[in-house]
Write a structure and sequence with these properties.
Layout: E1 5-9, H1 14-25, E2 29-33, E3 52-55, H2 62-68, E4 74-77, H3 83-88, H4 90-110, E5 116-119, H5 144-163, E6 167-172, E7 175-176, H6 189-198, E8 203-206, E9 212-213, E10 216-217, H7 218-230, E11 238-241, E12 247-248, H8 249-259, E13 267-270, H9 285-291, H10 299-312, H11 317-321
Parallel strand pairs: 1-2, 1-4, 2-3, 4-5, 5-6, 6-11, 7-10, 8-13
Antiparallel strand pairs: 9-12
Helix pairs in contact: 1-7, 4-5, 6-8, 6-10
Length: 337
């Protein structure tokens, strides 16, 4: 594989930093664009400065981005604000996720960047009408986040259809693993469950726990994203990236508790989250056939790796939990352990 100059937006975030790690390991030179609202410099600290350059900038700053895309061969666009953020700040969420994508597409095309990969989300589907969910499944997002990500998809495909600008859309289902978010309005279920179980605190389930997700380990997700920018047959396409296994949140809680050695960990049930998708289950056959994408890390193994990562950090679990917000779709909330 020939070394390329690649720009990754959101590259200091959870999935983005894993993508950057894999790109650098493959010999590519990576420019990371991240405003560090959700991303962290520490997520890239293990990478050599000769391989990765971090530029702290918002993707909506057109003049800066216009300079950064010059000479780039692939743009991987992951920068976004999350689903819970959209519930308390819908206009900002749309502006970053939808308008920011349009700005980046325009600048990349003007700079003749040969490939643009847009990282969308399974949230564009809303709740499954049938399973497993192919890319032809109806899109009926239930939050402004899902709507904004779908708008970004539409802009990305429109640039291919209108200008024949080479774009690819990927739809990762729920990812987990090291550097995942437990904190603030970015906090996700697996890290929150794991940290609480490790601390001997009850895991909090919103609703009745029968809602399902399809969890993919982050290294598998990032590899699928990377392949989308490297395979010519992907141009103009849309691809699911998922493990292909459905699990209820109730079963997930029991599984996490067992992995961390607390099989009797308590579970408490709380109010349903607004706009919560009730069922997700990916069919990634297209990505397997076109991209060569095949997940290799099981849920059980991934959970064990995540626990090992937490234990290796040298940070007290209580200190990490101090950053948690239970009802993290609300604008502000005092910490509630």
């Amino acid at each position: 594989m020939t070394a390329k100059r690649i720009l990754v937006t959101g590259g200091a975030g959870f999935i983005g930093s894993e993508l950057v790690t894999q790109l650098a390991a493959a010999g590519h030179r990576v420019v990371v664009v991240d405003n560090l609202v959700n991303g962290k410099r520490a997520n890239l600290a293990h990478l050599a400065d000769a391989d990765v350059e971090l530029v702290e900038v918002d993707i909506r700053q057109r003049e800066v981005i216009a300079r950064l895309v010059q000479g780039v061969e692939i743009v991987y666009h992951l920068a976004c604000l999350g689903v819970r953020h959209s519930l308390h700040d819908p206009f900002e969420n749309h502006d970053v996720n939808a308008t920011g994508t349009l700005i980046l597409l325009d600048l990349a095309r003007r700079a003749d960047v040969p490939r643009f990969v847009y990282v969308s989300s399974s949230e564009v589907y809303g709740t499954a009408r049938w399973v497993p969910m192919t890319e032809e499944h109806p899109t009926y997002p239930m939050t402004v986040y899902g709507g904004g990500k779908l708008a970004g998809e539409c802009y990305t495909r429109a640039f291919w259809e209108s200008y024949r600008y080479p774009t690819v859309v990927v739809r990762p289902f729920n990812s987990f693993g090291p550097r995942s978010h437990h904190e603030g309005d970015s906090g996700e279920v697996i890290p929150k469950f794991m940290l609480r179980a490790m601390a001997g605190l009850p895991m909090v389930i919103f609703g009745d726990g029968t809602q399902t997700r399809d969890f993919t380990y982050v290294s598998d997700t990032a590899r699928g994203i990377m392949l989308a920018g490297m395979v010519d047959a992907a141009i103009g396409g849309t691809f699911n990236l998922g493990q292909g296994r459905e699990i209820s949140i109730n079963e997930l809680a029991r599984t996490v508790a067992t992995v961390v050695g607390r099989p009797d960990a308590a579970i408490v049930y709380d109010i349903p989250r607004p706009g919560d998708v009730l069922r997700l289950y990916a069919d990634s056959t297209r990505a397997q056939h076109v991209l060569g994408f095949t997940p290799t890390v099981s849920l059980q193994e991934g959970l064990q790796r995540l626990q090992e990562w937490y234990l290796s950090r040298g940070v007290a679990i209580a200190d990490l939990l101090a950053e948690e917000r239970v009802h993290n779709w609300k604008k502000e909330e005092s910490v509630n352990l």
